[in-house]
Design a protein that fits this description.
single chain; mainly alpha; Muramoyl-pentapeptide Carboxypeptidase, domain 1; 3 domains; 48% helix; flat
């Protein structure tokens, strides 16, 4: 019996045995079947994983590169020349081995290393940066997470406030940050915006 048939039989057996109508499961009890998950530790492992996993990693790396000010091109999960160049530029600035390859280690470095390495030089902090990050999670902002209240940030705030039906001014402050965080999860950009 193939693995998929075993899983299907096990599910069917559970459903039938839990039926209050008195129908008993047909056949002997099946032992649980472990479903393997891909272990991804290095760039080489990444290329051995299913295409969907690879695409998710590349997309995550592209989003982080963009947030750090390195222009990877689109956030589409495709390893193109611009993404490879952005990876190399980040690796150079971060003092990593320069290979231009996506990897789980690179994604972890982009997400967790402190202080953050970015194209702008100095560490970025403040309310505007937090607003940019919250708006990016909802798809309203795809510009660099630079902490600057520029036209792209103001446009993203305008679009979010319109979709959330928030009245009042467009000041980027702690009140706005809390409104973004408290907004229902379904308030998201219908399309991704990269500028104001």
């Amino acid at each position: 019996m193939r693995r998929s048939e075993k899983i299907l039989c096990a599910i069917l057996g559970l459903l039938l045995s839990g039926n209050s109508g008195g129908v008993a499961a047909a056949g002997p009890a099946m032992e649980p079947v472990a479903i393997p998950t891909p272990v991804v530790r290095t760039a080489a492992d990444l290329y051995q994983t299913p295409a969907g996993v690879r695409t998710a990693y590349v997309r995550g790396i592209q989003m982080e590169l963009l947030a750090h000010g390195y222009g990877p091109g689109g956030v589409d999960g495709v390893m193109g020349a611009r993404t490879r160049a952005a990876i190399r530029a980040y690796q150079l600035d971060a003092g990593l081995t320069i290979d231009g390859e996506p990897s789980p280690e690179l994604l972890d470095h982009l997400k967790f290393v402190q202080p953050k390495i970015n194209r702008f030089g100095d560490p970025v902090m403040g309310i505007v940066l937090q607003v940019q990050r919250e708006l990016a999670k909802r798809g309203y902002y795809l510009g660099p997470h630079d902490g600057l209240n520029g036209p792209g940030t103001r446009g993203a705030v305008r679009r979010f406030r319109a979709d959330a039906r928030l009245l009042g001014d467009y000041a980027i402050d702690s009140r706005l940050l809390q409104q973004i965080r408290d907004a229902p999860a379904e308030i998201k950009a219908e399309r991704l915006y990269s500028d104001g």
